[in-house]
Design goal:
Elements: E1 2-9, H1 11-15, H2 19-39, E2 42-47, E3 55-56, E4 64-65, E5 74-82, H3 86-96, E6 103-108
Antiparallel strand pairs: 1-5, 1-6, 2-5, 3-4
Length: 114
Amino acid sequence: MRFVALMYTEPARTAVMTADEHAEIARKFGEMGEELVASGELRNGCGMDYPAKTTTLRLGREPTEGSFHTGDTLLSAYWVLDCADRERALAIGERMLDWHVTAVEIRAVHDSVD
């Protein structure tokens, strides 16, 4: 089954990260990504740019600069997972949570293609 793990962060938390904290996060997610590639469960994924560098398109409106979402958290990354079942996808999502990834949504992906 294919799932997407949507990772959310709070800009106030990431704004105060030290170089060592950035390095630790890169190490943690790099190792987890390598493990999931080796198991065949990670299909793709990447980090997302800041909302200020986003353009939002809406039906019947002119494009606007900035993110569609304006709350305290922002979508910061996604991973497409190919797991045996929802429980495995949830277990992977739980590993993504830490002080800078404050929420992870696990959603089934429908009608996907390779």
